[in-house]
Amino acid sequence: MRALSRAVGFSFLFSHPLSRTFFPLHSAHEPCALPWDDGGRAVVTLAVAQERSGREREKESQGQQRHIRKFELCPGRMIGGSHPCFIIAEIGQNHQGDIEIAKKMIKMAKDCGADCAKFQKSELEYKFSKRALERPYNSKHSWGKTYGDHKRHLEFSHDQYRELKKYADDIGIFLTASGMDEMAVEFLHELDVPFFKVASCDANNFPYLEKTARKGRPMVISTGMQSMETIRRVYKTVKEHNHKFTLLQCTSAYPLDPKEVNLSVIRKYQEEFPDVPIGYSGHEKGIYITVAAVAMGAKVVERHVTLDKTWKGNDHEASLEPSELAELVRAIRLVETAMGSPVKQMLPCEKTCHDKLGKSVIAKVKIPKGTVLSLDMFAVKVGEPKGIPPEHMQQLVGKKIKVDVEEDDSILADMIE
Ligand SMILES: CC(=O)N[C@H](C=O)[C@@H](O)[C@H](O)[C@H](O)COP(=O)(O)O
Ligand SMILES: C=C(OP(=O)(O)O)C(=O)O
């Protein structure tokens, strides 16, 4: 304590007799008392608050972390607890089937500060039935007459995936893909992706979930198009084989209307699955909703990215262009910093404002020496010098004043018997 006092140059403050008898300094475990004596006391009290706040923050975050599971999603990159939100740039099929565009997009994700670039890997005959592949796809977003032709145009080969993985490794960004069927998961396992992404359309595919979970890699599981009952079953099924997984709230509509986002499901998941980091996969336009998800505690977020929103393809419109992705990353990091601590107390950075505008107990009338104080003698104003803070006003009642106090003067601690 002395060291602290010396550090701020007010070593005398703790020896004032009134500080312990009339307005005791609170112990580290009690709520912080506001300074009531003068600016010097304010500095010391703030320094104590700062020291305690560090300890409390540590204790509190240890407490939280016992309940919120954290795990290593990618080599050297933990998620959950107080680790930064993991940001997935979902390239998906926005590469238009062109590997050079895909590489540009991986580089863009890296340059914008995303943690990971993600694709969608299908083994089309395993993901789709023959008739589904043959169905006509008459959309302005179609790359072929049938859905099969369309998907074949957008699908990279195993060799192309190896090339993309090497490229991502070389430039230093994690790369993974959703395995859109069991065979694709086999290939991604062989490709040695850091984690498996499970797309919403496989969240109710229990044989797939079980096999994927058994492989032992961490999993990021999206939950669009599902019911709470199904998600409870997903939790149980995956947990039996693999503790390293996250659940992402998701609504599978492109672009997603804000009315259908239901960020509140994040809270629901946090309550129902307190040992799982919860995240958000968004298909809305813009970045605000995703930033809000992080403020609600999303530990992983995924957003589609594009080089140009006007390009052909189902997902471009709801995707983020590079400037938006960079802004999203900045906003998320800023909000994470701002989340801070739930310990409410006056902070050192508030001292300047407190010195200038913090209020004190002021004499409403002239108070002659020897008067027994009562509430009607007090006003609350910004005083000069700073006096007893108003929250201690009641404690003055019944005490005797040692000196004559003029109307509008600050009432100071050493004026009280
Ligand atoms: C649910 C799901 O898989 N959704 C994916 C991820 O969000 C999407 O990227 C789809 O692959 C895409 O919207 C399909 O578009 P098309 O049908 O034009 O290929
Ligand atoms: C469809 C996917 O994700 P989500 O369900 O999160 O949109 C995906 O990862 O391919």
Automatic annotation (TrEMBL):
Coiled coil: none
Gene Ontology MF term list: N-acylneuraminate-9-phosphate synthase activity
Protein name as catalogued: N-acetylneuraminate-9-phosphate synthase
Class in the EC hierarchy, top level: transferase
E.C. number: 2.5.1.57
Reaction equation(s) it catalyzes: aldehydo-N-acetyl-D-mannosamine 6-phosphate + phosphoenolpyruvate + H2O = N-acetylneuraminate 9-phosphate + phosphate
Entries under PANTHER family matching the protein: N-ACETYLNEURAMINATE SYNTHASE, SIALIC ACID SYNTHASE
Superkingdom field: Eukaryota
InterPro entries attached to this UniProt entry: AFP_Neu5c_C_sf (IPR036732), Aldolase_TIM (IPR013785), PseI-like (IPR051690), PseI/NeuA/B-like_N (IPR013132), SAF (IPR013974), SAF_AFP_Neu5Ac (IPR006190), SAF_PseI/NeuA/NeuB (IPR057736)
Keywords: Transferase
Keyword field contains Hydrolase: no
GO BP, one annotated term: N-acetylneuraminate metabolic process
Domain AFP-like: 360-417
